[in-house]
Amino acid sequence: MSSVESVSISMHTTCSTPHPHILYIIKVFRDDNTIHEVIKRYSEFVELREQLGGSFPFPPKRSVSCAIVPATWVDDGLIQERKAGLQMYLTAIIHDLALNKRREFIDFLSPAVEMDDKRPRSGHEMISNGAFASKVANEPDSSTKYIAASYYPSWSSDSFPPHTIDFSKFDVLFFAFVTPNGVAGISWDDGSQDTLKKLVSSAHGSGSATKIVLSVGGWGGSHWYSQAMSTSTNRTKLVNNLVEVVKSYGLDGIDIDWEYPNAPGAGNPHSSADAANFLEFLKSLRKELGPSRIISAAVTQLTWLGENGSPLKDVSEYAKYMTYVNVMNYDVFSSSSHPGPNAPLGDSCGTSTQPQANAVAALSQWTKAGMPVSKILLGLPLYGYVSKSTDKKLTGSSIPTSIKPRFPAGMHRRTTTKGPTKTEPARGDLSSMWGQQISFAELITAGALVKNPDGTYGAANGYTMDWDNCSDTPFIYNTERTTVVTYDDTYSIESKTKFAKKSGMAGCFTWSMDQDDGVALHDVILANLKGRV
Fold first, then answer.
1. Of 422, 439, 421, 426, which Cα lies nearest the Cα of 485?
2. CB of 218 within 8 A of CB of 412?
3. What confidence category does residue 81 fall into, taking pLDDT thresholds of 50, 70 and 90?
4. CA distances from 39 to 50, 92, 107, 144, 375 (A)
5. Per-residue DSSP letters for 248-314?
6. Which residues lie closer than 8 Å to 212 by C-beta, 6 or more apart?
7. Can you give the three-state secondary structure of 388-407, one letter per residue?
């Protein structure tokens, strides 16, 4: 029998008999790619809690006046608060390996048996009896080829030379980076041209059909983008230079990592006309590259900022010329004394100070603006953040809302952190990494994580592993070492990959391939996208 992966309670309805009351509509996502809905009263949640026991947070009972018309309850603050609390309670049980197998819980979320009588059924009955159970909306058929991609930084060539890559793990590799310069040309890091040649040669010789795409820009490489896009002459120069590189190196496309149009990013010049100019650039680039080569862009969870400084409400014209948008769903919260999740799947508790910055919100924001879901790649980080903190749970953010940055800082950085080596005597000591990023591989090298026989990873050397149900991500902490690490592991990578597939996205990409423990996390992506490793 399939198992429950997640639940959502975003809707409710009312019933007037035997007296007015609220009915909560629970959307149940299962691991066989189906969903169904069940309807429950608050009293039924209370009964479930009494049956299961446990100390999970539960929304308290409060009186709701029955004198008002039930239809007016739809936007009531109490109802919204209760829905969030009930969803949080069910999510906690799903992640409890003992309680999630209890018959009472399984029955609670199971669709009721179909009625034998042929009388017309109400909408409530149809939902609660599973009449609306179906494949997830927009889910591609089984013949769809999901994309497993990753960024290959040029600076990783010493530790991960191209000839050592198992190209069978990747449909697309984005080579990072070249950067636009002040004359609408492109600049290369020392040795990166030779590395790119070796990468293309190794990929073509592997027999795996891996596509190599040149990524342009990055966090520290976007200074000249606005100027390069500002006039027709500059755009033409940049397009011609990029097309020449594609042809010279035998590449499969171009990835625009502009951080960010009409926003300063790392202190870059920017203009209110950036988004409009970018569209004209995409038109020209597509014309010169032809219809088959990849054109992608690394983006945040929000659409590009328009002339008025707000996210564009319609990106359908951009979509005509693009193959993918690569949603960088990471760096949402970095290091702090009260750390939050690096890469939240969602905001299931409704408590995040950045509710627009998670995978679920990104999908909604981009598709509502007209980007086809089949052109969205979900970004998965193979790194985390080390914080000096004694917290035992994650918080939304330590940054006041009034000064919260519009975009996270430091995406696709050009430098990598170096953690403790295996020869250090103090195993698990991450104090030298406070305030920095740390790769998944470095967490293992440092002794904070250890690989289990089943391929998962557990805490070591005095760390405690815990799970943040609100963001669906893990973290480890050690109060004696005053250290908290927020990161992603096999479980959270699996959850996000399944979400991408069920939602009908094109697939997933990682930043960056050199930060994995071998190919452990990439194998999780392959297993859940394609059913293989």
1. 439
2. yes
3. confident
4. 19, 19, 13, 33, 34
5. HHT--EEEEE-S-TTS-TTT----TTHHHHHHHHHHHHHHHH-SSSEEEEEE-SSPPB-TTSSB-S-
6. 172, 173, 175, 196, 199, 200, 203, 249, 250, 251, 252
7. ECCCCCCCCCCCCHHHCCCC
* Structure-block tokens of residue 279: 């569209």
Please tell me the distance from the alpha carbon of residue 491 to that of residue 440, in angstroms, as a whole number: 13
Output the 3-class SS for 475-521: EEEECCCCEEEECCCHHHHHHHHHHHHHHCCCEEEEECHHHCCCCHH
Nearest to 14 by CA among 88, 90, 68: 68
Q: In this structure, are residues 185 and 241 in contact, taking their beta carbons and an 8 Å threshold? A: yes
Contact 211, 296 (CB under 8 A): no
Residue with tokens 């591609």: 140
| Residue in 87, 154, 128 with CA at minimum distance from that of residue 470 | 87
Amino acid (1-letter code) at residue 530: K
At residue 15, the 3 state secondary structure works out as: strand
Distance CA 92, CA 162 (A): 43
**Rounded distance between C-alpha atoms, residue 398 and residue 388, angstroms:** 13
Question: CA-to-CA distance for 303 and 322, rounded, in angstroms?
Answer: 14
Contact 396, 352 (CB under 8 A): yes
Two tokens, residue 124: 């409530």
Q: What is the pLDDT of residues 376-424, one digit of tens each?
A: 999 999 999 999 999 999 986 333 333 333 344 456 665 454 444 444 4
Residue type, 273: A
Helical (H) or strand (E) element with 133 = none
Q: What length does the chain have?
A: 533
Quick one: tokens of 192?
């990166």
User: Which residues partner with 305 through β-bridges?
Assistant: 311
Tokens found for residue 195:
């590395």
> What's the distance, CA 287 to chain centroid?
31
* Single-letter amino acid, residue 405: P
Give the number of C-alpha atoms closer than 13 A to the C-alpha of residue 320, restricted to the C-beta side. Answer: 9
pLDDT tens-digit map of 164-196: 999 999 999 999 999 999 999 999 999 999 999
* N- to C-terminal Cα separation, the chain: 24
State residue 425's pLDDT score.
42
Instruction: Give the integer Cα–Cα distance in Å for 215 and 177.
Output: 5
Q: Are 324 and 371 in contact (CB under 8 A)?
A: no
Q: In this structure, are residues 94 and 5 in contact, taking their beta carbons and an 8 Å threshold?
A: yes
Contact 168, 206 (CB under 8 A): yes
State the DSSP H helix or E strand holding residue 232, giving kind and residue range, or none if neither.
helix 232-249
Contacts of 215 (CB under 8 A, 6+ apart): 151, 174, 175, 176, 177, 178, 255, 257, 298
Within 8 A by CB and 6+ apart from 339, the residues are: 333, 385, 387, 389, 391, 394, 395, 398, 475, 484, 486
Which pair of structure tokens corresponds to residue 528? 């859940």
